[in-house]
Input
Amino acid sequence: MRSDLRRLLDAAAAAAKEADWLGLRRRRTSAAYYMARDGAFDQAIGGVDDGVMVEVLFDGRFAYAATPDATPAGVARAAASAMVCAKAAAGRGVYPFSQAQRPGTVAEYRTPRARMAPVAPDGVFAFLLDSCAALKASDEVIQTTSIVEVGRYDFEIVSTNGADIEQALHYMGTGLQAVARRGDVVQLRTANGPRGLTRQGGWELLDTEALLADARRTGAEAVELLGAETCPSDRRTLVLTPDQMMLQIHESVGHPLELDRILGDERNYAGSSFVKLPDFGSFQYGSKLMNISFDPTIAGELASYGADEIGAVATKQLLIENGILVRGLGSLESQARSGVAGVADQRATSWNRPPIDRMANLNLEPGSTPLADMIASIEKGVLMRTNRSWSIDDYRNKFQFGCEYGTLIEDGKLTRTVRDPNYRGVSSTFWRNLCSVGDASTFAAFGTPNCGKGEPNQVMFVGHASPVCAFADVEVFGGGK
Amino acid sequence: MTNDFKSHFDAVSARALGELLPGERAAISYSAERSSFMRFNNGKVRQSGVVEQADVGIKLWKGAKSYSIQLGLTGEAARDEDGVAEAIGQARALMPLLPDDPYQAVPEAAESSDARYPGKLLPEAEIPARVLGPAAGLDFTGIYSQGLVCRAAANSAGARHWFQTETFLVDYSAWLANGRAVKSSYAGREWSDAEYAERLASTRLSLENLGRPEKALTPGKYRAFITADALNEVVTFFSWNGFGERGLRQGESAYIAMREGREAMSPKFGFSQDFSLGVQPAFNDDGELAPERLVVVRGGKIENAIVSSRTAKQYGVPSNGADEDEGVRSVAIEPGDLPEAEALEALGTGVFVSNFHYLNWSDVQAARVTGMTRFSCLWVEDGKIVGPIKDMRWDESLYNMLGSKLEAVTKERHLLVESMTYEKRQVGGSLLPGILVDGLSFTL
Output
């Protein structure tokens, strides 16, 4: 396909002769979505989308034109439109960009897959119907849903300075949910949160035996929560499992470290950051147990790739080392504007939106504490599993997060189940109270395809892996009016 | 790409419906746009460009089987007819492998509509100068978008609907060095330099209040005047775990207690789905028309839930032309009797909430929501503005905010147009008053 794209590049370049640089970024998305509800068919959807973004650099300013018309005439028109935009901004560019922000990278990446041949729809629905049955733990379960979403993103980039990138990312997400009711009490339990179990890989991810076991546990826990007391309201040690840590990392570490937020690009929509540019290299973000990595090289985690969408080669980098902030989540563009070291993270939701700074796989590195030792060391605490609610201010300071399922920790032991567990805090205070990091046996990777950001708006797939972690002196509370 | 989206839709939908075999039925939904975007930061152009795109959704029914197709289109009718026909062929091969759909709701609606709202927009080459020039001197951040947006639907029962509108939107905030900002927007169909200058003048005036010393509140309950802009964030919660019939029946709605009479909102509070606002079409993806006005909450009690044809089939209740997700569209909250000009006086001492941010559920079943204050929220004493507050987290049940703690609703309402651009420029909007709340719980 790239030979086609190079032919289109010639057509675009001919239509924008004044451009100092020109690139084409093609993205084809194909996806299928299958859903059963209450043991019956609910939805089956298949789709394809394909288009090209033409980008020009003129007098230090990038501008774009996106079109689904991937013909020489179509991209030529787009190139001419992009030139109009670039010229119109004369004297008003935010920074004098150059080709250094669009390296001529040659790269290829493909998701490793053990099983490449798709399971036929009747096989997928056999699993979905079985899992609804497994979720139906009792008559108190009033709704069961089971979802499989599967797809691939094909990326191609070519440019007048020799970029030649081809990437094929394959993903699958599974969703299991049970809603249970007893009297006026209603509880919802999922397997790892809404769309939390989304990973790169092939059809081996449809591990029906393991997923059916998850479904049985999920349904049983929904019913268990009906009889649970509400989470107490006080301050205590909080233990979070990886399917909540993903959200904690995402909201209170990932977004604050995005250089485009710190530079102010997002102030009108997603927000800014409490982190300032001079903080890099010295700011004590968390306790010495905190090591955060940007790692797009982990096979199977949702946001693994070989290069970002402006051609920066993706490598693992530590952003926070022993609690000290050392590097930002910023692309070649943001690095040039800020003077802060960054990563290969400029990505777009599709061909119709320009790439911006994005998390990829943002992970907390494992520590050395076995889970049993962690629990045994806590006199008064609560363990919370699975995100169900998230809210944080526009500087990424004051957060409140909620989970589906809690277990009290009393005198070093896990004791009673509690429902509607929530907690709130301030980001850097919270991370400085990180008091225990689980060992590699507690480490698990999750991902979500729906992180929202940018103007115009974009959703993005991100991955987060973490061990179980404990935080001291956290305000926790339950539900109710 | 085509310059005539209507002809393109006619060709693509005719091809899709023309390909149907005996026993097959279909509904076609279509959207298209030609948009210009300019993102700006500190009064400078951060990113600018144009996007043209079109897509089609095809729901296909045969016997007891249902399948949906979602295709991006090239904008060239001949190529897109090929693509649609091929996709229908692939669907036919796949559908026998699906289980039967027990709640298949094939549309029978056969109405037609055609609504077109032309605009007078800026020439692309003039956008930076006309938008950023008048804002010189401001730390001015946000996005300008403009262009043609189209929505359409057709079905095999004969429905044909077309909606197109040309609009612009400057969605912006202006910042002080102390990190405080005024958020505002200028939207419409015909650009006016004079109206835009007026809006910016008002923004400059509002910034003066934010230069005063910041007041840090301690957690507790405060009187609060919540503006229409801030209330717009709450309206999201009428669709998310909201007033859809399926969610009310299946345990996901936040308003089950209200439906069952265990909770209520204030007798002062009511809202409707009102398509007379003219900001989005009343037809859904299946070509079904919703009533022009549907009262959802009247006098604090649920009068009608939002019902799709699929839910109607499942539970034997009438449909009201909702989308499958049963979200509320074109929300109009009933006005009250508090003149907006008297809002500060009525507030007395408390918080003037200009904007909320990042709301989410604390407890769905208690309709309890948490969120942040943002931008130019002000501390008011005895009806006089003292200065900006340090942003606070709040946590409150909507049964309190819109119920027992709702003291007054303003007479005046504001039309707030949809600004979201996920995947495509969205259409829609809400007509909202401000509200006065006694005892909003601030927590952090």
About this structure: The mean pLDDT of chain A is 97. The two ends of chain A are 58 Å apart (CA to CA).
